[in-house]
Write a structure and sequence with these properties.
alpha/beta; 12 helices; single chain; globular; 10% strand; 6-stranded parallel sheet
């Protein structure tokens, strides 16, 4: 069956980091003091994304092991684990600074204008693993000037981290309670909420499990060399764990298609 028109949805929920904010580049920059302390022959020196991936593995382990640990503390602890693993003496100021990273890491170049356009058509919601303080700084800073967000749901408020299904149930229940938008968390019917995300493992796999329709903002992640921290696309697809019905490289391209479909529909109504 063909997916429903994008004009049929009333609200969009977004993953923030990796989708709207350039999480991997921001984190790589914050990891640079550790990376440059390694021998010149170390693989991280040639490819900082490897350090980001290893850091993310520590972070994800902490998500599961300490689900109530705020994300800023998760980042600090993950950096300490990475430094210890590689025998690097960690400067405490560096360790603490990484905890504030999500509030200052840059938005992708297409993000702000795309959100402004999408905000004319939909309610906009963030579902993020980041703590309350950092997401507030990001909304006011790197995402400043974008359309308003009608709701922001964080792991800190929910008490667990994506990919926990609890986070997606919280999202679905929240938009229904606050905006009367059916989240379709049980997979039975409603169309109004659409989830928009880059990460396959943190967002698209659990979205399928709760019956939430989704858009993949791939940002190159449909090619093996760019999988990054979003998950192994080929493997997850072969396992049947993905259910997204739209694929765009950027949020800007998604916004273009939304505008095209609304213009076509409005033209037919004249």
């Amino acid at each position: 069956m063909s997916p429903p028109p994008l004009t049929s949805f009333r609200a969009l929920s977004f993953d923030c980091y990796g989708t709207l904010v350039d999480w991997e580049s921001g984190l790589a920059s914050d990891l640079s003091p550790l990376i440059t302390a390694l021998p010149a022959s170390h693989p991280y020196r040639a490819n900082p994304l490897l350090a980001v991936q290893r850091f993310n593995a520590h972070s994800e382990h902490l998500w599961a092991a300490q689900p109530t640990l705020a994300y800023n503390a998760n980042l600090v602890q993950s950096l300490r684990l990475l430094a210890t693993e590689h025998g690097v003496a960690l400067d405490e100021a560096h360790a603490q600074a990484i905890g504030d990273g999500p509030g200052r890491w840059p938005a992708f170049g297409d993000t702000v204008e795309a959100l402004r356009r999408l905000g004319r058509r939909y309610r906009l919601v963030i579902l993020s693993n980041v703590d309350e303080a950092n997401i507030a700084r990001a909304v006011a800073g790197p995402l400043g000037g974008a359309a308003r967000f009608d709701a922001v749901y964080t792991a800190e408020a929910i008490g667990s981290y994506k990919p926990s299904l609890d986070n997606f149930r919280y999202l679905c229940e929240g938009v229904e309670r606050e905006f009367g938008v059916a989240g379709d968390g049980d997979g039975k019917g409603g169309l109004p909420l659409l989830h928009v995300a880059r990460s396959l493992t943190a967002d698209h796999v659990p979205a399928k499990e709760v019956g939430l329709r989704s858009v993949w903002i791939a940002r190159g992640g449909d090619r093996a060399e760019n999988y990054g921290t979003g998950g192994d696309y080929a493997k997850l697809r072969a396992e049947g764990r993905l259910g997204f019905e739209w694929l765009f490289q950027t949020v800007g391209e998604f916004a273009d298609e939304v505008e095209r479909q609304f213009a076509a529909e409005e033209g037919e109504g004249k």
